[in-house]
Amino acid sequence: MNAPNKSGWKPHMEVADSSGESVTTTGNRALMLEESLLFEIGHAETTGVDLPEVDPKASTRLGGLERDGAIGLVGLTEPETVRHYTRLSRQNYGIDLGFFPLGSCTMKHNPRLNEKMARLPGFADVHPLQPVSTIQGALEVVNELAHWLIDLTGMNSVAMSPKAGAHGELCGILCIRAALEARGDAREVVLVPESAHGTNPATAAFANYRVENIPATPAGRVDLEALKARLGPDVAAVMITNPNTCGLFEPDLREISDAVHAAGGFVYCDGANFNAIVGKVRPGDLGVDAMHINLHKTFSTPHGGGGPGSGPVVLSEALAPFMPLPYTARTADGVVHLIEEEQADDFAREHFGGELSNFGRMTAFHGQMGMFTRALTYMLSHGADGLKQVAEDAVLNANYILRSLEDVLHAPFADSGPCMHEALFGDKDFGNGLSTLDLAKGMIDEGFHPMTVYFPLVVHGAMLVEPTETESKSSIDQFITAFRSLAERAIAGDESLKHAPYYAPRRRLDETAAARKPKLTWVPSEE
User: What is the rounded CA–CA span in Å between residue 199 and residue 201?
Assistant: First the structure.
């Protein structure tokens, strides 16, 4: 068998020059095909389909909105079209190709069973305007999932309609605002620790609160005394991420919650990192009033470009009366209903002892059926003991990476105890002006999607690595080997890293120019 081509930098290898000039006539490199733009493949004057002639005198239904010129789109044949998009798809990196170590993003393997269940008739084709009597199976799934989320978090109720994490954050903060308004309390400030997710202050500001930061301790956790000192009658809530963005558990959360409640405020917990504590810790036991859960992270549904998200929000007893409509509830006859405005007050009187004081809707309809089905399938497949193991394995993998690399990379919180789901490194010792970005580009040459870089901001040149629980030891070992090699090169000041990646479909871009002067329209060359 022929030896495979070498990839990645080795001391005895020469790397391509910074121009990246191709050595083949076509620009192709074996199975890595150079792909042109659609406008460079076809022509606007041709079409790939046969269309009947249109009588110019024929009436239309456009009401004067007819085009007065050519649309300018290129015409391609079916083979040209299929090949173009197939070749582009092969240049994408996905979880089915390799390790995706993005910190705080939980890019785990998505079990195919989940996908199969989500495509079953009655789930995949359910319509939001169908009569409730025709969607009992779908409502059972939503209701069952809601109870799992309540049990896993130790909370009182859950709003299932938010469509993603940031949407869930907004839902939680609006529930807090509604609760404060109901008691005539016009508080203006939301406190956000430095170690919280970046969406937290944005959400609070969007809800018209003034955001104030709470510093972190040298150990990477919330400064408890600074937080207590700032509490007062103007503080509506504290938005805390636990485990935090430094990859550390906040052991003082119960004390923080007690102090915030004593001052008349509420505690919002960012649940994006629930993957690290699911089955191990119930946020409700720590005094949390509201927390969103990214179903598309903790419970293994498509993430980012792979599909829509879902961010249910679990609520404490104090906030339950203020959750948005609609929500599911099982009545005495055993039937699950979707509670809308006309039933809300009766339900509230029965369960909350008064009329519902919710702030309305977060979305036009209830939520993401596909995400609900996938998440519940994941839960039922694992069971309570399996979900507990999810957290344990995720934490084990992250600590394995941290302890395997702390001798070569700056690990600012390595002495703060075990990390949780992610390990955090910095670029403190890099030589010759090399940066975290250079190492990340080198990671692409090694066949890995880079880790999260330059976040959190509390660490210079941050590199945040989350292996998740679905990676095997062998895949993590390979990643550690590549990471160590790149770190050693960066510390030694290897200039060649400044021009990486060498083997990707595209060489390094001028990212500053791309952000400040983007080219959004194709312009034909002058040749």
Answer: 6
Beta strands in 254-358 (DSSP E): 266-270, 290-292, 313-315, 327-330, 336-339
The secondary structure of 465-486, three-state, reads ECCCCCCCHHHHHHHHHHHHHH
pTM score: 0.88
**For residue 57, what are the contacts with CB-CB under 8 A and spacing of at least 6?**
none
Query: Strand pairing of 313-315 and 157-159?
Result: antiparallel
- Find how far residue 290's CA is from the centre of its chain: 19
Nearest residue to 430 (alpha-carbon basis) of 491, 386, 509: 491
Contact 337, 328 (CB under 8 A): yes
Dump pLDDT digits (tens) for 59-87.
888 888 888 888 888 889 899 999 999 99
Interatomic CA distance for residues 197 and 352, integer angstroms: 33
Complete DSSP assignment for 212-273: EEEPBPTTSSB-HHHHHHH-STTEEEEEEESS-TTS---TTHHHHHHHHHHTT-EEEEE-TT
- Pick the more confident residue, 7 or 492: 492
Residue 448: both structure tokens together:
């890995």
CA distance 259 to 248: 21
Higher pLDDT, 296 or 347: 296
Query: Residue 1 above 60 pLDDT?
Result: no
For the chain, the residue count is 527
Please name the residues in contact with 409: beta carbons below 8 A apart, sequence gap of 6 or more: 425, 426, 429, 463, 483, 487
Distance from C-alpha of 89 to C-alpha of 479, rounded to nearest angstrom: 24
Q: Which two tokens stand for residue 107?
A: 């890019």
**pLDDT > 90: what percent of the chain?**
64
Write out pLDDT tens, residues 272-283.
999 999 999 999
CB atoms within 10 A of CB 129: 5
What percent of the chain is modeled with pLDDT above 70? 90
Residue 236: phi and psi, rounded to 5, are -80, -40
Task: Report helix, strand or coil for 344.
Answer: helix
pLDDT of residue 285: 98
User: How confident is the model over 39-59, as pLDDT tens digits?
Assistant: 888 888 888 888 888 887 888
pLDDT tens sequence across 111-125:
999 999 999 999 999
CA distance linking residue 279 with residue 93, whole number of Å: 31
Per the CB < 8 A criterion, the answer to whether 276 and 152 are in contact is no
* Structure tokens that stand for 312 in this block: 């249910």
3-state secondary structure of 463: strand
Q: Taking the CB of residue 100, how many other CB atoms lie within 10 A of it?
A: 24
